[in-house]
């Protein structure tokens, strides 16, 4: 595997979990398996065998195992597989042993039990990021030895690959989508070093937009780092973003470089900025105003050069009026404000999104050849998707898992989706109560969406009496039954 593979949009880094307790393995797998490929081992011997055959980006190892301790095994890993990032998990009673072996084993970080899923996921993400950056440094050193011409060529190739993988074209949408205007404005402001605030519901793709802005900017050759401000306790967020010095607080056993320093010359993406406390907002405002930060416990400030892209599902103007968000920080973040529309407001984007997600999820689940049946798309377009793209992806994964053939039919969808089209009807109504035609998609896709809404409305009004509904619609019972089956409409009772 090469570093260029890391830029491939379908690449998932490999994480090796080493723990003799199956329940602990399962808990970590559930936390990490959406973002990473996972392998599990119950002992150091099993882990060695796996490392001989697979290149792991990160290894998470329990401290207490039969035979070797976690630190002792990670010491061996450092010698034989030095590029694998090493993380040890332990209870409080093991902390002295781990501290004594941190330098010798080259442990990136240790996590105390009981661990928090969001913190574990974020730690592994940062470990992969650190590994990628380190490997990039090694390659740059080789390039420098080869000469500046080779350096520019290699750097240009990597940048072109990154822009192809994470550019605005990678934000899936149909022609004429409401996202076109958002992406056009984002592409314009990407060229200028302005702060950007991205608003939108959870799961609408705010992070994808932020990444596209970074790779469309003059900072594209610099790092892109992200942090979910809601996933880390407020007491740890300052240390995570700005760093800390050894001994600054209990548990600070060594200097920690914060994300702002790692992103020097690049972009920091702060997700869910609206969840931060007023105390933290003061410290963030100072960094943005002065262009320098002070790690926790450090007597001297450090200059940093970063662009900040913030995102939130909250209405920050309301939060400012309510006194929960600082007005001066709000205006500092809103150089440009972009709004990501929810999926229910861009129904025409569902077909291309669903086709792409079917390919991606099908490949991840070992079913690369699956396709949509004729009745599936109408059902997908008839559901309001309150969880947006994230919910759509999960529903597609469920449908693939429950389908045996190559065609994914509507009956494989959850009851929530099959019976949730009344929500789409409400979302599609204008002020006069009349359903409106979707503004994007092919003619057949638009007609299917409207037909599904009309059928659902009549069936609800007729209390799912097929005889009366068929008479109202001018259909035979057989014809009505065929249409209900095509769109996956069933009596919720």
Automatic annotation (TrEMBL):
InterPro entries: AAA+_ATPase (IPR003593), AAA_lid_NorR (IPR058031), CheY-like_superfamily (IPR011006), Homeodomain-like_sf (IPR009057), HTH_Fis (IPR002197), P-loop_NTPase (IPR027417), Sig_transdc_resp-reg_receiver (IPR001789), Sigma_54_int (IPR002078). PROSITE patterns: RESPONSE_REGULATORY, SIGMA54_INTERACT_1, SIGMA54_INTERACT_2, SIGMA54_INTERACT_3, SIGMA54_INTERACT_4. GO terms for molecular function: ATP binding; sequence-specific DNA binding. One of its GO terms (biological process) is phosphorelay signal transduction system. Residues 14-128 form the Response regulatory domain. SUPFAM superfamilies: CheY-like, Homeodomain-like, P-loop containing nucleoside triphosphate hydrolases. It comes from Sphaerotilus montanus. Keywords: ATP-binding, DNA-binding, Nucleotide-binding, Phosphoprotein, Transcription, Transcription regulation. The modification 4-aspartylphosphate is found at residue 62. It comes from the Bacteria. It holds the Pfam family AAA_lid_14. This is Two-component system response regulator HupR/HoxA. Residues 179-401 form the Sigma-54 factor interaction domain.
């Amino acid at each position: 595997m090469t570093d260029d593979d890391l830029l491939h949009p379908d690449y998932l880094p490999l994480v090796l979990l080493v723990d003799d307790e199956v329940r602990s393995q399962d808990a970590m797998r559930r936390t990490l398996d959406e973002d990473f490929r996972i392998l599990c081992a119950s002992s150091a011997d099993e882990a060695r065998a796996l490392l001989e055959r697979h290149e792991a980006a990160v290894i998470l190892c329990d401290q207490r195992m039969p035979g070797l301790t976690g630190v002792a095994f990670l010491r061996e890993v450092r010698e034989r597989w030095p590029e694998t990032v090493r993380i040890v998990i332990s209870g409080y009673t093991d902390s002295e042993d781990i501290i004594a072996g941190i330098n010798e084993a080259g442990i990136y970080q240790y996590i105390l039990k009981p661990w928090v899923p969001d913190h574990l996921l974020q730690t592994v993400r940062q470990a992969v990021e650190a590994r990628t950056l380190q490997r990039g440094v090694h390659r740059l050193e080789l390039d420098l030895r080869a000469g500046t011409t080779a350096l520019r060529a290699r750097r240009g190739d990597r940048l072109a690959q990154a822009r192809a993988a994470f550019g605005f074209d990678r934000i899936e949408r149909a022609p004429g989508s409401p996202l076109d205007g958002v992406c056009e404005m984002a592409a314009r402001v990407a060229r200028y070093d302005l702060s950007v605030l991205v608003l939108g519901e959870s799961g609408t793709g705010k992070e994808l937009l932020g990444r596209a802005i970074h790779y469309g900017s003059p900072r594209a050759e610099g790092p892109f780092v992200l942090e979910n401000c809601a996933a880390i306790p407020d007491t740890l967020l300052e240390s995570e973003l700005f760093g800390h010095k050894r001994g600054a607080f209990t548990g600070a056993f060594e200097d920690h470089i914060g994300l702002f320093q790692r992103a020097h010359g690049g972009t920091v993406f702060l997700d869910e900025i609206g969840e931060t406390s007023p105390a933290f907002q003061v410290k963030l405002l100072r960094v943005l105003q002065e262009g320098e930060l002070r790690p926790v416990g450090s007597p001297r400030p450090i200059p940093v050069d970063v662009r900040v892209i913030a995102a939130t599902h909250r209405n920050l103007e309301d939060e400012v009026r309510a006194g929960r968000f600082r007005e001066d920080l709000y205006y500092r973040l809103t150089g440009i404000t972009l709004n990501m529309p929810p999926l229910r407001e861009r129904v025409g984007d569902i077909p291309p999104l669903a086709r792409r997600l079917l390919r991606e999820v099908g490949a991840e689940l070992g079913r690369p050849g699956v396709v949509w049946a004729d009745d599936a798309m109408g059902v997908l377009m008839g559901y309001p998707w309150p969880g947006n793209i994230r919910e759509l992806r999960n529903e597609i994964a469920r449908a693939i898992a429950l389908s045996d053939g190559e065609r994914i039919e509507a009956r494989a969808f959850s009851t929530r989706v099959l019976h949730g089209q009344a929500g789409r009807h409400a979302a599609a109504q204008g002020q006069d109560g009349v359903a409106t035609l979707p503004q994007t998609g092919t003619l057949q896709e638009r007609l299917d969406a409207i037909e599904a809404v009309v059928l659902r409305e009549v069936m609800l009004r007729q209390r799912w009496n097929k005889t009366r509904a068929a008479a109202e619609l001018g259909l035979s019972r057989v014809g009505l039954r065929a249409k209900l089956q095509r769109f996956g409409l069933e009596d919720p009772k």
